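Homework help board

Subject: predicted structure for assignment chain

Our instructor gave us this sequence and asked us to write out the predicted structure in token form, then describe one feature. I got the tokens but I'm not sure how to describe them. Can anyone check?
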Amino acid sequence: TVTRLKSVLDEGEALAVAPALQQRYRDARGGLGAYESGMMDDANRELRKALEVDPTHAEARAHLALISLRQGKAHEAIVHFDGMDETTKPTYAVLRNRSLAYERMGEYAEALSTLTDAEKLDPDDAGLALARGIVQMKSGDGVASMGSLKAYQDKLGSEKPLPMFYAFSMLAAGLAGDMGRALEIGEEGLKQYPENGAILVNAGAVLEHRGDGEAATAYYERAIKGDSPPAQAFKALGDQALGRGDKAQAAQHYQSA
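My token output:
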């Protein structure tokens, strides 16, 4: 999940500055309030007004970057991070979000380097190990990913891992060539989150890879019955139907994806 930045503006400070800066603070506060309320269009408009007065406004840039990430505009998020005041760039929250933007851009080396910088500020955060494992998996390094994901689990202690830990750990194990371990992780994950779509789909993919198409189908069908069925479950069922020569059924699943 994306880490939100807290406002550091003080009402007394706003009253003491020049009128132009007062307007900057008003626009920023209006934008932050809209962001907190989930009104992204209003937040985007007000925060951009703040940038017209001060292009390096830290809170405005940071929240515009988060809005860009929500909209799938990772490159635009990096532009906002780069436009922030130099004294704000090294903060933990900015580094975490910047790493996420690089990850979504496929710039995995930059994402990992940024996570390393974040770890210097908060080395005990288990979420950093999870984020590192995900980036390593996406970059194709299954072995390193498994190590980082194990570190995440170890740091949690008795706390239950997030669903994405199991989903990505399965992929990492498969990437490392250990399909048996991938299946074990899937079974562990489904004990904790029986109806999680990502875990079900990935477990199904492992079973299908091992030649157990019937069991895989059962997992895919469980996944599409959830409240937010993943598109990949429909696609997998469509591929299975197409493999059987049932083009009509395949088309129906693909259309639902």
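Reply (TA_rk): Your tokens look well-formed. For the description, you could write something like this. The radius of gyration is 22 Å. That's the kind of observation they're looking for.
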